[in-house]
Amino acid sequence: MKLAICAGTATTGKSALLHHVIPRLQRRGWSVAFLKIDVQYADEDERFARDFSIPTRKVYSGDLCPDHCNVMVLGDAVQWAEKSGADILLVETAGLCLRCAPYVDRGLGIVVVEATSGMNLPRKIGPILSLADIAVVTKIDRVSQAEREVFRARIMEAAPQVRIREVNALHGIGVDPIADAIARQPDIDAELTLRGNPPVGTCTICVGKKTIGWQSHFGVVRALENQTFYRGE
Amino acid sequence: MANQASIDWSGVNGRGGQLSANSPLDQGGHQQSVIRQVSIIGGKGRDGLHDAIDRLDLNMGDVVSVVGPTGSGKTTLINDMELFADGDTPTGRRILINGETPPEVFRDDPSRNPIALITQHTSFLSDLPVDVFLHTHAGIRRSSSREADELVRQTLDFANQLTGEPISLSSSMTELSGGQTRSLLIADATIICDTPIVLLDEVENAGINRSRALELLRGYKKIFIFVTHDPRIALLSDYRIILRDGRIADVLKTDARERALAPTVARFDDVLSDIRDRLRQGLRIENFDFGDVA
Ligand SMILES: Nc1nc2c(ncn2[C@@H]2O[C@H](COP(=O)(O)OP(=O)(O)O)[C@@H](O)[C@H]2O)c(=O)[nH]1
Ligand SMILES: Nc1ncnc2c1ncn2[C@@H]1O[C@H](COP(=O)(O)OP(=O)(O)O)[C@@H](O)[C@H]1O
Ligand SMILES: [Mg+2]
Ligand SMILES: [Mg+2]
Ligand SMILES: [Zn+2]
């Protein structure tokens, strides 16, 4: 199973991007499953199931940070995707707290940022950008070439090791290399580990436990199937 | 990061050591003499019909106009060029440089990109002062930052020759008027990018001094591609690419008769510009002599 996690704040163009990525992967013969993690509303699962006839799921994180929620449910989700016969699991998550990042080792981390978001954005969003493998810059049709180039420089300055790809996610221009990168990704390991260090805090994720799956955590946790519940003494 | 090795985008973001290795450099530390030709390999229009050309070669020094009604696909055509389309845009067109598929590094490293595009945008979204923006852009378009101050100065000077409302280095990009924005875009493309291929999208609608812009641009030997409704620019070109329904419907070479007409059209244009300026300044139009023009 290959895994790609696509993160970024609301309306940056994650769904628009994946809407062009999925058919490109299908044309190369891959079976794709899709999981959407959002705080309180999402309809991408229904849209993608209808448009591409693929297995899709969504989970509302509610009181949890979506990235924390991701840590809890991703283990279950990989099993679900495997059972549905998929070779690639695509996860779309609205990284909100900007202190953590949802990427896991051996999964491709894609952060989506919009060219229209202002030149200081790359300095503001922290690990969701710096821990990603690829930064996808959307809405390049809305700004001048000069602004695109300066925005790219700002990303390189904040996250020098992250590859940058500019796309028009509305028309699918520039999307091929992103589908290629997902297809070239190695399979994930049985045990998934969160990339980077979560922020200081009091829950088991917050105190730095990086193993994926609610079974490894205590306190307020959640499974893919259930609402949040308390686990522990 | 463990898995980065698996993404093989050689040269992405890699402005480092490989930059100057084998590119012929001019005095600015800036390669450009290598580009001789850009070619458009035909795709299809919105109606699915093939472009009227299989391949169109534009050579160094050519001035080309792209004409057609609004919505006919003019901007889309020059966007194809700027993106080095490789069958991956809605038109299915492909762009070759010197007869070959352009290397990825053209897209990924602005300092190696041989194309500058002056878009139709009449406002910037960048929340930076003009000064910081231009310095950053000069730093990434040119390998040496030694000359950045001088480039920024020249760029501002160029822009201020095109707009009646002078731009100051401390103004914020987002505050600039439509005319100031377009003037700065043209100056940035010409001085900072200084690429062998320049694409301009409807510069005439910009509220800028067009005659001065053409005069200044003509001082550079480049491949110029103007998207235009302006008869003066169209007649000054070597070719006109005609767009219809998203499709390249025809390519016309400017003939001798049209060339002979160009100076008269230019004089008309100057007279009209002059009248327009006077009206704008609140002056009266009196005793105008059209005899010389017609
Ligand atoms: N012009 C333009 N609009 C885009 C682009 N990418 C996304 N959008 C629009 O931005 C809005 C939000 O996109 P969406 O994919 O739903 O964002 P998400 O919340 O990150 O999933 C939609 O109206 C998209 O059509 C782009 O590259 N160019
Ligand atoms: N060859 C094509 N195939 C599909 N869509 C096209 C094609 N050419 C143009 N379009 C679409 O037609 C619309 C108008 O094109 P545009 O390039 O903006 O026109 P113009 O600049 O001439 O006013 C755009 O939405 C563009 O995406
Ligand atoms: Mg979405
Ligand atoms: Mg246009
Ligand atoms: Zn968090």
UniProtKB/TrEMBL annotation, chain A:
InterPro entries in alphabetical order: CobW/HypB/UreG_nucleotide-bd (IPR003495), Hyd_mat_HypB (IPR004392), P-loop_NTPase (IPR027417)
Spans through the membrane: none
Gene Ontology terms for molecular function: GTPase activity; nickel cation binding; zinc ion binding
Residue ranges of every copy of the CobW/HypB/UreG nucleotide-binding domain listed in the record: 7-162
Gene Ontology biological process terms from the UniProt entry: protein maturation
One of the Pfam families matching this protein, by short name: cobW
SUPFAM superfamilies: P-loop containing nucleoside triphosphate hydrolases (SSF52540)
Protein name: Hydrogenase maturation factor HypB
From TrEMBL, chain B:
InterPro entries per UniProt: AAA+_ATPase (IPR003593), ABC_transporter-like_ATP-bd (IPR003439), P-loop_NTPase (IPR027417)
Family note: Belongs to the ABC transporter superfamily.
Organism, as annotated: Rhodoblastus sphagnicola
Pfam families referenced in this protein's UniProt entry, alphabetically: ABC_tran (PF00005)
Family annotation (SUPFAM superfamilies): P-loop containing nucleoside triphosphate hydrolases (SSF52540)
GO MF term list: ATP binding; ATP hydrolysis activity
PROSITE patterns listed in its UniProt record: ABC_TRANSPORTER_2
Biased composition (Polar residues): 19-31
Span list, region Disordered: 1-31
Protein name: ABC transporter ATP-binding protein
Record's keyword terms, sorted: ATP-binding, Nucleotide-binding, Transport
Keyword Transport attributed: yes
